[in-house]
Design goal:
Blueprint (H helix, E strand, L loop, with lengths): L1 H34 L5 E7 L5 E7 L24 H9 L6 H6 L4 E3 L9 H8 L9 E3 L12 H13 L3 H17 L9 H6 L9
Parallel strand pairs: 3-4
Antiparallel strand pairs: 1-2
Length: 209
């Protein structure tokens, strides 16, 4: 029952968001175009509900010569690829705003497991154990307010499973406001390959920004 209400809430929230945030969109579009050459938006193939594919939208935060389909935390010296405006967008998570469109058309939900990259096979397989690939991915979710990029694949998938098992209006409210706190504090954001990632599990992917 709640899943039908959840979809309705997604539509209402995104329509309101588009109206309220239109001035912000315009300012950011101009800033991105003035800061570096390339498109305003960045598209990336992601895994959606029932492991279908869609292209996620973000504001472009990196230069056009950045290696494709590589999570930022696996890049050596990512600062060389991130634009000046991009640093601000990533720190504030404003680069995620275009996903309002993904939510509106039904690719995503406001709250849910973050959509995996198409080549994050380990994360996709681990989520299968918990049924986390069977619902719409989200703009933010339970794992994002409990560690984000710092989480090992197994822990992230387990948290996504906890969300699936406890999905409800109040769970979504908790994730929503928890996300605001996490963004303000910049909790769990990893930029660049740490020694732990490089030496222990170079194939481990986290959510690419």
């Amino acid at each position: 029952m709640y899943l039908k209400l959840k979809r309705l809430l997604d539509i209402i929230l995104t329509l309101l968001g588009l109206i309220v945030l239109l001035p912000v969109f315009l300012i950011l579009i101009i800033a991105i175009k003035l800061d570096s050459r390339g498109p305003v938006f960045f598209k990336q193939k992601r895994v959606g509900k029932k492991k279908s594919y869609f292209h996620i939208l973000k504001f472009r935060t990196m230069k056009i010569d950045t290696p494709k389909d590589t999570p930022t935390h696996l890049l050596q010296n990512p600062d060389q690829y991130i634009t000046r405006v991009g640093k601000f967008l990533r720190k504030t998570s404003l680069d995620e705003l275009p996903q309002i469109w993904n939510i509106l058309v039904g690719h995503m939900s406001v709250i849910g497991p973050r959509p995996a990259l198409w080549n994050q096979y380990d994360l996709i397989a681990e989520r299968d154990k918990y049924g986390a690939n069977d619902i719409r991915p989200g703009l933010t979710g339970w794992a994002q307010i409990n560690g984000r990029d710092e989480l090992p694949i197994e822990v992230k998938a387990k948290l996504d499973g906890e969300y699936v098992d406890n999905i409800s209006f109040w769970m979504d409210v908790k994730c929503f406001f928890g996300t605001i706190v996490s963004v303000v504090k910049s909790d769990g954001v990893v930029e660049g390959a740490s020694n732990n990632f490089v030496n222990n599990d170079i194939t481990r992917n986290s959510d690419s920004k």
